[in-house]
Amino acid sequence: MFQRFAIGGLAALMLTSAAFSDTSKTVGSIEVLLQIDAIENPEAAAYWTSLADDLENALAARLMGQMADDGINLKIDLEEVSLSGGITEKFGFADTRLIGDVVMTHATDNTRFGAYELTVDINSAMPMLPPDVDVTTLPADSRVYYDAMVATFADGVVERLQ
């Protein structure tokens, strides 16, 4: 009798825990902020023009099944974006990077608050590059690098929600 109760209680506890863990992964809103005029390098400013929208869309696509009215509010303030000068990527000294403060808030649940700084450089984005890309000939300001940087940053945010 006790064994049956213990197993039933354990199953109920596991289901309850699973339900709570699923709600902590929901996202209510995503906001990405970037002040293009604060980027000192004109080439980098032109390169990152649509970054806020592109990152917001990348996050929304990754979180499609996790959006809910009662979810975490994600606010990302991109503090620094820079574009390196080409050849440095080949040797692992890339300056191309995104740095942003990620803040998670919730209207009613204080356990769902958090904040951290996320830095993504081109070296960490290399796994996102298509396998047929030759990094020794691809310029740092190509769309392939841009997409890899956005994808890596979005994946870093989503990974921390899990």
Layout of helices and strands:
Layout: H1 2-24, E1 27-33, H2 42-47, H3 51-62, E2 72-82, E3 97-105, E4 114-121, H4 122-125, H5 143-161
Parallel strand pairs: 1-2
Antiparallel strand pairs: 2-3, 3-4
Helix pairs in contact: 3-5
Describe the structure.
The chain is of the alpha+beta class and 162 residues long. It has one domain: 2-Layer Sandwich (Double Stranded RNA Binding Domain), CATH 3.30.160. The protein has five helices and four strands, in the order H-E-H-H-E-E-E-H-H. Strands 1-2-3-4 form a four-stranded mixed sheet. The model is unreliable at 4-24 and 86-93 (pLDDT under 50).
Number of beta-strand segments:
4
- Might you state the CATH topology name? Double Stranded RNA Binding Domain
If you compute it from the alpha carbons, what radius of gyration comes out, rounded to the nearest whole angstrom? 20 Å
CATH architectural category = 2-Layer Sandwich
CATH superfamily: Ribosome hibernation promotion factor-like
> How is the main sheet built?
4 strands, mixed
Q: How do the strands line up in the largest sheet?
A: 1-2-3-4
Which shape, going by the Cα principal axes? globular
Mean pLDDT: 78
- Assess the beta-strand content as a share of residues: 15-25%
Structural class: alpha+beta
Question: Please, how many helices?
Answer: 5
Distance between the termini: 37 Å
Could you say how many structural domains there are in total? Answer: 1
Low-pLDDT windows of residues: 4-24, 86-93
The level 1 CATH classification is Alpha Beta
Q: Name the helicity range.
A: 25-40%
| SSE topology string | HEHHEEEHH
